[in-house]
Amino acid sequence: MERAAQPAVPLGQMEVFQALQRLHMTIFSQSVSPCGKFLAAGNNYGQIAIFSLSAALSSEAKEESKKPMVTFQAHDGPVYSMVSTDRHLLSAGDGEVKAWLWAEILKKGCKELWRRQPPYRTSLEVPEINALLLMPKENLLILGGGDCQLHAMDLETGTFMWALRGHTDYIHCLALRERSPEVLSGGEDGAVRLWDLRTAKEVQTIEVYKHEECSRPHNGRWIGCLATDSDWMVCGGGPALTLWHLRSSTPTTVFPMRAPQKHVTFYQDLVLTAAGNSCRVDVFTNLGYRAFSLSF
Amino acid sequence: MSSESSKKRKPKVIRSDGAPAEGKRTRSDTEQEGKYYSEEAEVDLRDPGRDYELYKYTCQELQRLMAEIQDLKSRGGKDAAVEIEDRRIQSCVHFMTLKKLNRLAHIRLKKGRDQTHEAKQKVDAYHLQLQNLLYEVMHLQKEITKCLEFKSKHEEIDLVSLEEFYKEAPPDISKAEVTMGDPHQQTLARLDWELEQRKRLAEKYRECLSNKEKILKEIEVKKEYLSSLQPRLNSIMQASLPVQEYLFMPFDQAHKQYETARHLPPPLYVLFVQATAYGQACAHRKSSQPPRQDKTLSVAIEGSVDEAKALFKPPEDSQDDESDSDAEEEQTTKRRRPTLGVQLDDKRKEMLKRHPLSVLLDLKCKDGSVLHLTFHYLMNLNIMTVKAKVTTTTELITPISAGDLLSPDSVLSCLYPGDHGKKTPNPANQYQFDKVGILTLRDYVLDLGHPYLWVQKLGGLHFPKEQPQHTVIADHSLSASHMETTMKLLKTRVQSRLALHKQFASLEHGIVPVTSDCHHLFPAKVVSRLVKWVTITHEDYTELHFTKDIVEAGLAEDTNLYYMALVERGTAKLQAAVVLNPGYSSIPPIFQLCLNWKGEKTNNNDDNIRAMESEVNVCYKELCGPRPGHQLLTNQLQRLCVLLDVYLETESHDDSVEGPKEFPQEKMCLRLFRGPSRMKPFKYNHPQGFFSHR
């Protein structure tokens, strides 16, 4: 694992502040560009950084290749979730969804294309949006967050179409099961719920914390991250990171990650990127084996 | 010669002619002369050929006679004697003839010789004449060549050009009609003109000289007048001293200071000049107040001027001193053994010698405390050092943890980032140190003062790292550009340290002093209490298990100050390790937390601890308080207590454990968890008084 090199330059106010920021930074979200060459990462300060994956993964990768190509302030609050369409990067955090053009994003001073806020019930506090789910066929964007509902937004018109209720506590993560099509949502209440979009109803519920292999009561019951491959599902959080077979609703593999995991993605069938509570993005090239880390 | 020979001749002749007085002599002379004359005359008359024939005939006759005599003698007889006699007489006659002939021959010879001689003499005379003439000819030729080669001096003179001459010369000199045609006359005219001009110039020169004399005399007079003025001015100055004091314009005092300042070494001089200028500029800015009250910066010189003058004595004296000291040292080597060390020690002392004069700067802060800075100059090392002391209007009781805050050793540490003042800033010093076995200057800073980089800059000394220079000269512009910032930093430093000093006294008693203008940052009721506040060493800090991240990030240097705070509530104990940067409060203190409650929680295993640290470390700008920001540390500590309260009260109840919650929730929170990281609501909202998430 790489460690930050000891700075030889004496630290002034600016350097100390930046070092402190980096020490207390959490990366909440990431998304790969449609061309596959870039990785966007969002952190708790509301910044988005764009890394060049091709440079970092190449055989001649140097220290500088692992630094972001560009960093900009996207949201006021943390950027909890990001997805990419074939042309846009959608980021969401403090109650808003913003869209950015991938083609423009590497230029300095990039501005968002549009921003939208789903209709919330409470007005005292703006609930956060923890998860974004893209359904390219229907051109829908599904949002799940602090108000315990799943909202659906039409990407072309920008209107919010319906909301799915069922979670008793706020929603952490969403995943799309393409075959059905179904949406999986994991929440603070410890349950993974499957929703059928056509009927807009809850189809299946998996209460992860009730299974002994993966439950960790001292951590709590919340489900922090979710990823699905139609037959398989990976989820983790309070309980350990586990691979589930969906039809039978049984856990198959438990991954050896000490800390509760925040984000997980299937990428090209083999690579899993999972970000823990540090400023680093860990890259797995094989299931269960960590290769290297990208750093903010 | 011919004249001489003829002169010789002449006296003979004259003698004979002109001296008839001597009887005998004259007679013999005349006889002899007569003989001469007669035989000479005979010689002239007789024919030499005939004489030769006569001689031959005589010789024959003689021979015949002799032969006849011989015959007769041999025959004998009576008539022989008469015949012999006869023949004898004949032969005698013949002998006489021979003798005469001989005489004639001699005379002829003599005559011949005389004639030759005469002729020769004539020839010689002509020869001589010829020689003389030739010699004269040669001489004349030489003279002619000399004359032809002769360069008259007038050609060496640069005469004015022809055109100019005709233009300038008055017509009676130039005589154009005559000179145009005749080059000789022309040259003469030109020379005339030259002479004329020179005469005029000589005249001018004399006039100027006399003028100069006059003016010099005038100057003398005026000088005398002025010098008589000097003592009068002095007395006026003396008389004006009380007036100066009354008007707050101490010119005299400043003058004396400038006098002393002349003996300062260049870097101290630069510092003195720039600091005085800055002090005056500051005083000018607030010109509404009477100047004396606004002396925020006062500059003075202290030390012995005589010693400073002594430094520039001629080298023989110092060499004598050295040889004396060497002699003394030699004596001591004979007596005692451990002298190598003593010698080395002396060499070290010599190398680290300070200039006898030092500059004193007193910075007064608004609350009346004063920072006394004494600047020294190390002559052999060409660096400046400073000793600092802080005095306050009231006596300070130092709390235990505040020991290092105002100590002269560390109060000015890291005024600029990284400027710890333990190493010499002059790279050339390393070689000097190696010679006398000094490892670093750190061992001597207590005595000599700290060689901070800003001190060198104030003295105008710049030691570039890339190209080390042989001699570094003090530069005024460097000092001037750094003066204002440094003075401001110094004042902020003193005031922040004094503020901390006061705060520490309170912290040690378990009270977090929150000023009234910072009350809005915290809720009214804070249950967690600060129970301990102590200093810890740098090593202790690095060995703590929960401070690894800070150490790795390079934020825990040995120039920082380290403290441990303990906050308690019920069974929960929160340890906070604090890194205080010397640049407080522009650089915030850094907190690392370790909570002991139901297990040990640090930022490694609990995100909420991390969030708490973030609240205090990253969001420090909200906690700075009013302008100088000295409340930062105490506000951070207070916030820490509040955060602990929130943490403990919002902890989700673990179903597996029995019993009620230890800390009932009293804080008003909208939501207990938010976001993928499930953060607790640490942000306090004023004036509503509820907690929310960032």
From TrEMBL, chain A:
Q: Which GO terms describe its cellular component?
A: THO complex; transcription export complex
Q: Which UniProt keywords apply?
A: Repeat, WD repeat
Q: Name one GO biological process term.
A: mRNA export from nucleus
Q: Which domain of life is it from?
A: Eukaryota
Report whether Transport shows up as a keyword of the record: no
Record keyword DNA-binding present: no
Gene3D superfamilies assigned to the protein according to its UniProt record, in alphabetical order: YVTN repeat-like/Quinoprotein amine dehydrogenase
- SUPFAM superfamilies named in the record: Quinoprotein alcohol dehydrogenase-like
A Pfam cross-reference name: WD40
Q: Which InterPro entries does the annotation name?
A: Quinoprotein_ADH-like_sf, THOC6, WD40/YVTN_repeat-like_dom_sf, WD40_repeat_CS, WD40_rpt
Positions of the WD repeats?
A: 164-205
Q: Which PANTHER family match?
A: THO COMPLEX SUBUNIT 6 HOMOLOG
Similarity comment: family membership: Belongs to the WD repeat THOC6 family.
Q: What is this protein called?
A: THO complex subunit 6
Record organism: Moschus moschiferus
From TrEMBL, chain B:
Q: Where is this region: Disordered?
A: 1-42, 309-347
* InterPro entries, A to Z: THO_Thoc5 (IPR019163)
Q: Which residues form a coiled coil?
A: none
Q: Where is this chain compositionally biased, Acidic residues type?
A: 317-330
Q: Does the keyword Secreted apply?
A: no
The cellular location(s) given in this protein's UniProt record come to:
Nucleus
Q: Does the keyword Nucleotide-binding apply?
A: no
Keywords (alphabetical) are: Nucleus
Basic and acidic residues composition-biased segments? 22-42
What's an example GO BP annotation here? mRNA export from nucleus
Q: Which Pfam families match?
A: FmiP_Thoc5
Q: Name one GO cellular component term.
A: THO complex part of transcription export complex
Q: Which GO terms describe its molecular function?
A: mRNA binding
So what family is this one in?
Belongs to the THOC5 family.
Name of the protein this chain belongs to: THO complex subunit 5
Annotated organism of origin: Moschus moschiferus (Siberian musk deer)
Q: Which gene encodes it?
A: THOC5
